[in-house]
Amino acid sequence: MSSHYEAPIRRPLIIGDKSYHDITVEVAAPVEGKANKLWWTAFTIALLAFLWGIGSIIYTIGTGIGVWGLNKTVGWAWDITNFVWWVGIGHAGTLISAVLLLFRQKWRMGINRSAEAMTIFSVVQAGLFPVIHMGRVWNAHFVLPIPNQFGTLWTNFNSPLLWDVFAISTYLSVSLVFWWTGLLPDFAMLRDRAVRPFQKKIYSLLSFGWTGRAKDWQRFEEVSLVLAGLATPLVLSVHTIVSFDFATSVIPGWHTTIFPPYFVAGAVFSGFAMVNTLLIIMRKVSNLEAYITKQHIELMNIVIMITGSIVGCAYITELFIAWYSGVEYEQYAFLNRATGPYWWAYLLMMSCNVFSPQFMWSKKLRQSITFSFIISIVVNIGMWFERFVIIVTSLHRDYLPSSWTMFSPTFVDIGIYVGTIGFFFVLFLLYARTFPVIAQAEVKSILKSSGENYKLYRDAGGKNPAPSKVIKAKKTTSEVIEEVSDQKNVLLGNIGIFDKATQNADDLKLISGVGPKLEETLNNIGIYSFDQVSKMTEKEYDLLDSLLDSFKGRAKRDDWAGQAKNLKNNE
Amino acid sequence: MSSKVIQAMYNDDDILMDAVKEVRAAHHHIEEVYTPFPVHGLDKAMGLKGTRIAITAFMYGCVGFSFAIWMMNYMMIEQWPQDIGGKPSFTFFQNMPAFVPIMFELSVFFAAHLMVITFYMRSRLWPFKEAENPDPRTTDDMFVMEVAVDGNEKELISFLENTGTVEIKVTEK
């Protein structure tokens, strides 16, 4: 079809000979299947780390912030470093789903769901830090402009810290509804496939009764577009405002007008690195290599390379401006960063963030999955050290040399940080087993333009992978049965004949892939019970296919026999 | 009031699009089309009017913007003007630059959330809402077109059979 044309130079985004139904089955598979040992191991480790974090947080709240490694000179260290690090990671999701939507980049569709999930989970981690840093968490509501017992005591709207409250909460809540709106059709898909009543109930609840009417889709697309238009400046504003926490102060090393764009680039940089880390593992574990392809990883590597280079330019500009300004304090702050006692952190930051992404200029390296994974970890480490360098090295040698000191974290600092990593992975691992991790409805809409099979058909000719037009629909199945009564008898001979007088018929619609019409057809063939279906093997599937005029191959693809076996046992 | 509809099922979006055009050309009334994913151009082919939801988002954004101005003016200028760090709050316009970030955030907050709520209400989507798709396969790989029957059932069925449908069902609605 000419309307699905896409330039042959664009590489396919869906690999293999897929139909719409294949996409459904493969996206639903991780949710419908059972978790393997690896998942349980990862989940246990993450949960233990999370529990350690909870312990450290409780200890902090119970005893006071004195349990952290902070001192008079370095009054802000790991807490704010971790906050900025997590917020930064939370930038890729909305960037992928919003900015790439505005630019009509189809490759966003394979990865946007997971990237948005990552965004939400990491912003949750980020939000924890300011809250526990308040010391008296039970007064956390004081950051909101709500009437209180002091009459007219309001929050200070001139403070960048309050802007942060508004920016982060707007970002978190808007990302959440953006994510959820996109999830509705996919939850509906899981709902309509669900076999067990409990799953059916849960996914009906989550899908908000999504039905897929033409008008709903029209609104859905418009809402997605407007949300993308709103989220694009929003995502840029969030890290801009985070950078104001530093840039509006008068500390040498912080008082820099380059901070907003530099922080945003750094955030996108670290966010894409984290997306790469997570998706390289997930595509393998959940068998989604056909949807999160090498092409996706390569494109993300290019974004990492570009944003890494922007960050590098910003580092160098900072140094230049410090020298050029002629301000001694500013000059010393940067000299101290590079050559002072924290030179090792500065070197780590420079090599991880500026040097390592430059390898991505090589096509061979950016197409290597292993190399991409290593770089993604390196970048995450580098970006944590960037924040550490900015925050701690600017503070530890202040205007009074007599108060110069160093910072070392206590076990509580480390515990809270590791705890948030654990919490993040607990959420992500649960997500990977219960949510449709690929935006399957959207992926289906690009199958004909970007699917490998359709591209091959258009560019090299051959058979059209799309279903061909049926000229006359079969309204009754009786005629079909007459023609093929021989095959029918063989089939029934193999799987057993159903005796209406002594046996009860099962609800075959419980097998996912069987609708009311197909059930009728099966009944007409003489298949009524799960027991019969569960006896099907390769040979019976072929026989069944020859008896059906549509839905060919479906029984095998959906593993009806396996499903029926389960249903039979559940009865 | 009961009305009879014919539900014709298709297994491909292009066949569905052609069918929708044929049915419209033959002046039959399409009640509804259920699809598993957004089929581009389907709303135009069905003759649906454009959605006005983007306009509501703009209006909600204006509400958020005005609310932010009102709130900060009331709290920081009118009710309790303070001298914070030697930067007194005298007039709204002198303080305004510091209010820009929150004006922006609240405009986005209002526009995004109220638009999504409007969408959910208009499309009748909320927790515990029962799904109304005629067949569970319409969220998988099947497309269903519902055509109203107006005493011409036989004729309509034979017409639809020639549009490439794979299943036809007549139901009361």
Provide the helix percentage of chain B: 40-55%
Output the number of helix runs of chain B.
5
Radius of gyration of chain A: 29 Å
Total strand count of chain B, please?
Answer: 6
Overall helicity of chain A: 55-70%
- In the CATH scheme, what's the topology name of the largest domain in chain A? Formate dehydrogenase/DMSO reductase fold
Number of helices of chain A: 24
Trace the largest sheet of chain B across and list its strands. 2-5-1-6
Largest sheet entry of chain B:
4 strands, antiparallel
Q: Poorly predicted ranges of chain B (pLDDT <50, ≥5 residues)?
A: none
Helix and strand run of chain A: HHHHHHHHHHHHHHHHHHHHHHHH
Number of strands of chain A: 0
End-to-end CA span of chain A: 47 Å
- Total domain units of chain B: 2
Q: In CATH's first tier, which class of the largest domain in chain B applies?
A: Alpha Beta
Radius of gyration of chain B: 26 Å
Strand content range of chain B: 15-25%
- Mean pLDDT figure of chain B: 89
| Element string of chain B (H = helix, E = strand) | EHEHHEEHEHE
* Secondary-structure-derived class of chain B: alpha+beta
